[in-house]
Amino acid sequence: MLHCRPMLNTLEYLDLHSNKLNGLIDPIQEPNLVLFNLPFLDLSFNNLSGNIKSCMLVKLRNLSLLDLSHNNLLSLTSCNYGANSTLPMIIWFHFSSCNMQRFPSFLNASKYLQLLDLSNNQIHRSITKWEAEGWENLTTLNLFMNFLISVEKIPGKHLYFLELSSNSLPGPLPTPPQNLSFLLISNNELVGEIPSKICNLSFLSVLDLSKNKLGGTIPDCFGTFGNKLSMILRTLNLNGNQLEGSIPQSLKICFNLEVLDLGNNNINDTFPYWLDTLTNLEVLVLRSNRFHGGIQNFNRTFSFRNLQMIDLSRNEFTGHIPPELFENLKSMKDIQVDESGPEYIGGDYYQDSAIIKMKGSDFKLERFLTSFTVIDFSSNHFKGSIPKEVGELNSLIVLNFSHNRLAGNIPPSLGKMTALESLDLSSNKLQGKIPVQLTIPLANHFDTFSNDSFDGNSGLCGFPLSKKCGNNQELESSPSTVADDSETTLVWKIAAMGYGSGLVLGLSMGYIVFTTGKPHWLVKMIKRNPQERGRIHQNGRRKN
User: Fold this and answer.
1) CATH code for the domain in which residue 78 is found
2) What does the pLDDT look like over 209-256, one tens digit per residue?
3) What average pLDDT does this structure show over 370-399?
4) Predicted pLDDT at 401
5) Calpha distance 511→350 (Å, rounded)
6) DSSP letters of 484-496?
7) Which spans are transmembrane here (predicted)?
8) CA 450: distance to chain centroid?
9) Regarding predicted confidence, which is higher, 503 or 364?
10) Is residue 539 part of a domain?
11) Backbone phi, then psi, for 473, in 5-degree steps?
């Protein structure tokens, strides 16, 4: 792969990431290859194969950044180490998706190590106490999707990002370092209650404990201990546990909260209308719990103005759906897509994914666009009519009111929802003709809906149902109606996002997304002397 040997002794920066390189990696490990002064080596996202000999890696004594991640045919082979078998200057070590089966012991004495990414490998073991004590300067640890069975001690007293999701960790929640900003331990076997000491993490921005077996109640301390955490917490994801009780009202002073996902638990409470004080809230998921009662008492001026996803499905809510709710959902109206590129809820440092039902099928959004909008009130006991104000949400993409007790006619205003991709009004008590506004022009999304979108409403008739209305006069539109229809002709758009198979609507936080472009601060740092390189660079952290 490399043939310019005379020049390699002065090489400082070798970045070949995201190419189509293939073949064996052995040539860079030749004993006479002069790469030993190289500080920066990035061969990630290629198709390289072969064994990487750890005894050859440790000869790169000046290496500060090594990224061999996402070369799925690579493997790491251990050697017999000597007393100095380490990478003394390593700061960033990426070895994600490379079939690694154990921790690289040559990193144990790497006292300057700040970022360690061993995600998506096959590590079957524990994090021992002696390993944890060797990385005092570690700030980012990503062990997502391995087979870890225990954590004796979480390494790094300066750690601010910890990703342990999708492992096999049992027992109670491990005690995390107090400087953490991101704590992600979803999809494990954690049991017991969420300890109140979690609230001692006064810098915590993202907490994801979803898909475990945690029980008890949600700690009441999130918004009650000095307001520091309440001003920083942005994501709280407890989906898929066995939590009971009610939602603590202390959360209403977590003013920067953007994502609250409490779905798939046993929470028994009324609708937390007091959350409308959280003006930054974008995602609210309460699905599959035991919520009951009505959802009234909205403040008409400020309620949920930034909400882009609300999922109340599979609960026991009753009463009418309040029209004022839809008047206040400003983020579902007239969304302007940024031409500079898509933006995602969660930013660049972690990944949001949403599993939703659209057009009768299940899809998984690998990343949640800020322009993606969802309302799911299905499988409750709502009654009364569908508020005509729903039609004002012209940026709404998914609307699901199915399996309720809604009655009356479908409001013609739904024809103004020009971004709508999925509509489900099935299994209600709706009646009358499906408004002609929903079927003009014939090339829009509504004419692609099957009977399933309206099925289970014995009183409905007209296109796209196979059931015709009672008389031909009802099928015709008056001249004024036709004129109105021509003014509201819809141009249907397909949302720009990737789909994959999945289940029904539910939000889950996932692993860190390491960007392939390395920050300028690190590139500059590796050119400095060894004493300067060892310092912790706080400006490498995520900006709020």
Assistant:
1) 3.80.10.10
2) 999 999 999 998 876 654 566 678 999 999 999 999 999 998 988 889
3) 92
4) 97
5) 6
6) HHHHT--------
7) 490-514
8) 31
9) 364
10) no
11) -60, -35
Cβ neighbors of 338 (< 8 A, separation 6 or more) are: none
Contact (Cβ atoms closer than 8 angstroms) between residue 340 and residue 314: no
Give me the residue label for tokens 């995600």. 119
**392/70 Cα distance (integer angstroms):** 45
**DSSP run (H or E) holding 151:** strand 150-151
Residue 362 CB partners (closer than 8 Å, separation 6+): 355, 356, 501, 502, 503, 504
**Whole-number Å distance between alpha carbons of 155 and 119:** 16
Query: Pick from 58, 8, 67, 1: which is nearest to 32 by CA?
Result: 8
Task: Report whether 352 contacts 345 (CB < 8 A).
Answer: yes
- Under DSSP, the state recorded for 267 is -
User: 202 vs 142, 198, 228, 229, CA distance in Å?
Assistant: 21, 9, 6, 5
Please check whether residue 5 lies inside any domain of the structure.
Answer: yes
- Identify whether 509 is part of a domain: no
For the whole model, what pTM was predicted?
0.82
Closest CA to 107 of 68, 144, 157, 57: 57
Q: In this predicted model, what pLDDT tens digit does every residue of 156-167 receive, in sequence order? A: 788 999 999 999
Task: Supply the mean pLDDT for the chain.
Answer: 77
**What domain range includes position 20?**
1-113
Q: What value does the CA radius of gyration of the chain take, rounded to a whole number of Å?
A: 27
In a domain, 86, yes or no: yes
CA distances from 57 to 25, 28, 86, 112 (A): 12, 10, 8, 17
Tokens 């004796």 map to which residue?
152
Taking residue 413's Cβ as centre, other Cβ atoms within 10 Å add up to 18
Task: Give the type of residue at 504.
Answer: V
Closest to 289 measured CA to CA, from 307, 309, 272: 272
User: Which of the four pLDDT bands, split at 50, 70 and 90, describes residue 440?
Assistant: low
Number of domains in the chain: 1
Residue with tokens 């990630």: 44
Q: What confidence tens digit (pLDDT) does each residue in 65-86 have?
A: 999 999 877 777 766 655 457 7
The three-class DSSP label of residue 132 is helix
Q: How far apart are CA 227 and CA 221, in angstroms?
A: 10
φ, ψ for residue 187, nearest 5 deg: 60, 55
DSSP state of 83: T
DSSP secondary structure of 520-544: HHHHHHTTS-HHHHTS--GGGSPP-
**pLDDT value at position 378?**
95
Distances from the Cα of 498 to the Cαs of 187, 355, 365, 372, 501, in angstroms? 23, 12, 6, 12, 11
- Whether 180 shows a pLDDT value over 60: the answer reads yes
d(CA 295, CA 325): 9
DSSP-derived secondary structure letter, 230:
H
- Reduced to 3 states (helix: H, G, I; strand: E, B; else coil), residue 323 is helix
How far is residue 123's CA from residue 173's CA, in Å, rounded to a whole number? 20
Nearest to 346 by CA among 164, 201, 512: 512
Q: Is the pLDDT of residue 414 over 50?
A: yes
The token pair that represents 163 in the structure block: 């990703």
